[in-house]
Design goal:
single chain; alpha/beta; Rossmann fold; 7-stranded parallel β-sheet; two-stranded parallel ribbon; 13 strands; globular; binds uridine-diphosphate-N-acetylglucosamine
Length: 330
């Protein structure tokens, strides 16, 4: 059984990847500092997978601890999900953001190289793309004109990986550019955990449904879109997790670096998300329109064709199915 190290494996996307890894016969090893996740997730993963998942509490910048883990377990491939992801926080605390996201990636790569582990899947983001390019966004469009330090940290890591693959032919590097992950495992046991007021749309809707927040603010109503609200490519987190399995299955076939969009290829408006939630859960969501949020793109959705062609992977769940799963957590 192949050991796959998964950094940030206790987090939202990482924990869902752990479920898919086990289901597909891999042995996940979680590396997480639990700064933005909870230890209780490990028990929940055990319940879902029927397997005790090996896990280490480690800050990836702690090289000596990281090295000891690489010495202890043979590693087939690393899935690097760990990282701070709150955009607003990245603006307030720019240096800690760079230190954590870029510092962790560097330390991890150094340690991998030292241990002759040259396969990595990196969790990147659609925020690396420059806006105002023709839709759907393909992997080949321009990147780098980033709008906040969070996005910049993803971009910088991508650029480091590009150079690494260019100048060191040992490496097999895959970059997955996630669009908007939503939903949760059908058990409802693992989900996106948010402390305080969530930034992301669906976690916010969930809090309103649970009456923990009074109403949702819909940022902007006069975008040039079908109903005036922003359009995003919402992908079920289990689909996203399965995308990593598709990458893993083929990572041995070709060295070098490859980039894939992880999205549905379909644009959905904010109002459509609210309606789908209401329809699937039967819970009405009160919302008010408020002014546009700074930095929001009007429309973002991907071309998912490259992943389908090369990885034979495509999304299975639609928005309604994602919302049926969200119903389990309200
Ligand atoms: C967010 C992150 C982005 C990350 C991406 C994928 C921000 C600014 N961007 O994108 O860096 O890569 O997820 O994980 O956080 N909305 C409301 N009311 C709310 C919350 C959101 O109307 O309370 C709207 C937003 O204006 C946006 C849409 O819902 O149009 C989605 O927002 P959100 O869930 O925050 O994701 P993104 O901003 O698209």
């Amino acid at each position: 059984m192949k050991n796959v190290f998964i950094t940030g494996g206790a987090g939202y996307i990482g924990s869902h990847c752990v479920v898919s890894l086990v289901k597909n016969g891999y042995n996940p090893v979680i590396l997480d500092n639990f700064s933005n996740s909870r230890q209780t997730v490990l028990k929940k993963l055990k319940t879902i997978t029927n397997k005790k998942i090996i896990s280490y509490k480690v800050d990836l910048r702690d090289k000596s601890k990281l090295k000891s883990i690489f010495k202890k377990h043979k590693c087939y491939c690393v899935i690097h999900c760990a990282g701070f992801k709150a955009v607003s926080e990245s603006i307030r605390e720019t240096i800690p953001y760079f230190d954590n996201n870029i510092g962790s990636a560097l330390s991890l790569l150094e340690c991998m190289e030292e241990n002759n582990v040259f396969k990595i899947i990196f969790s990147s983001s659609c925020t690396v793309y420059n806006e105002n390019q023709s839709l759907p966004w393909k992997e080949t469009i321009k990147i780098g004109n980033t709008k906040n330090p969070y996005a910049t940290s993803k971009y910088i890591i991508e650029r480091m990986l590009m150079d690494l693959a260019k100048y060191n032919k040992n490496w097999s590097i895959r970059i997955a550019r996630y669009f908007n992950a939503i939903g949760n495992h059908s058990s409802g046991l693992i989900k996106e955990e948010t402390n305080g007021v969530p930034n992301f749309l669906v976690p916010y809707i969930v809090k309103v449904a649970k009456k923990e927040l009074p109403y949702l603010r819909v940022f902007g109503k006069n975008y040039r879109t079908k109903d005036g609200t922003c359009i995003r490519d919402f992908i079920h987190v289990m689909d996203l997790a399965d995308g990593h399995i598709a990458l893993l299955k083929k990572i041995n076939q070709k060295k070098g670096l490859k980039i894939y969009n992880f999205g549905t290829g379909k644009g959905t408006s904010v109002l459509e998300v609210i309606r789908a939630f209401e329809k699937q859960t039967g819970v009405p969501i009160s919302f008010r329109f408020s002014k546009k949020r700074k930095g929001d793109a009007a429309v973002s959705y991907c071309s998912a064709k490259k992943a389908l062609k090369e990885l034979k992977w495509e999304t299975k769940y639609n928005l309604n199915q994602a919302m049926m799963d969200v119903k389990k957590i309200i």
